[in-house]
Design goal:
274 residues, alpha/beta, Spore Coat Polysaccharide Biosynthesis Protein SpsA, Chain A, globular, disordered N terminus
């Protein structure tokens, strides 16, 4: 079924696209990013929502986001929060579970991968069960000021090294597991998310391993990555923690999927859709 047919099927009906953003202490830049995210989706014909999941933020982000969204006055933007920092994997699982869309996508709050959002949506609407952005795709592009070229090269080397580690520990074929843009249908979310256990940055690896084990078709798409600064949430400690997580994932999925489990509700909803 083509994309235009799918769009017409959902015109004027329930939420079709959910964009989930795991959020941890992004600082004052979050208001600017809210506008960038909304502007990316505002001209799509399908009903959509944006869900910010504040993962134990301590910098006032939930309140800042709530005030920003109230000023915008768009009920399709939602904010939920909980007090303890649980990690990216937990935040993504919670957000995808709380989402209402037929297609559910998550991306990083730094918006490096925002330019690939529409292509990911289009792929899902064409029937792909799970779509992942890949910086290793031959059609991927990088956009950054000249001053960040050294940083991008270093990140590229780190990504290649981590990819080799991942494929050594886990039986998954993908060369870029960590690109911060992935999406799935609601049916796939219901099938796969309750089996996942990883709360940290290796969540993406467990997601892809689960897809392999459960027979879910994955498609890699190129992405246009934008870098505005050299801030990063990963360092040597994070890398070591991720390697430990990979070994736990390997153990958990050695024979069969882990038992299904339910996620708890958020402790506080700062702004809910009307």
């Amino acid at each position: 079924m083509g994309r235009e047919t799918l769009i017409s099927d959902y015109q004027g009906s329930e939420t079709v696209i959910s964009l989930v953003l795991p959020t941890y202490n992004p600082g004052p830049a979050v208001e600017r990013r809210v506008l960038a995210i909304r502007d990316t989706l505002r001209f799509r014909p399908e009903p959509w929502e944006i869900l910010f999941v504040c993962d134990g933020c301590t910098d006032g982000t939930p309140e800042r986001l709530s005030a920003c969204l109230d000023a915008i006055g768009d009920a399709r933007l939602r904010v939920v929060a909980y007090s303890q920092n649980r990690g990216k994997g937990y935040a993504v699982r919670y957000g995808l579970t709380a989402a209402r869309g037929h297609w559910r996508i998550f991306t990083d709050i730094d918006l490096h991968f925002l330019d690939g959002l529409n292509e990911a949506i289009d792929s899902l609407q064409e029937g792909v069960e799970l779509v992942i952005a890949s910086r290793a795709h031959r059609q991927s592009e990088f956009v950054a000021p000249f001053s960040l070229l050294h940083y991008i090269y270093r990140r590229k080397i780190q990504s290649l090294a981590f990819s080799r580690v991942v494929r050594t520990i886990l039986p998954i074929p993908f060369r870029d597991t960590q690109a911060g843009l992935k999406g799935m249908s609601a049916d796939v979310a219901e099938k796969i998310l309750p089996h996942l256990r990883c709360d940290g940055f290796a969540f993406d690896c467990e997601l892809l391993l689960a897809a392999e084990k459960l027979g879910i078709r994955v498609q890699e798409v190129p992405v246009r990555v934008r870098y505005e600064d050299d801030t990063s949430t990963t360092g040597s400690r994070t890398a070591l923690r991720m390697i430990r997580e990979l070994w736990r994932i390997r153990r958990d999925w050695r024979t069969s999927p882990p038992p299904r489990q339910a996620l708890p509700v958020a402790e506080h909803t700062y702004r809910e859709a009307a």
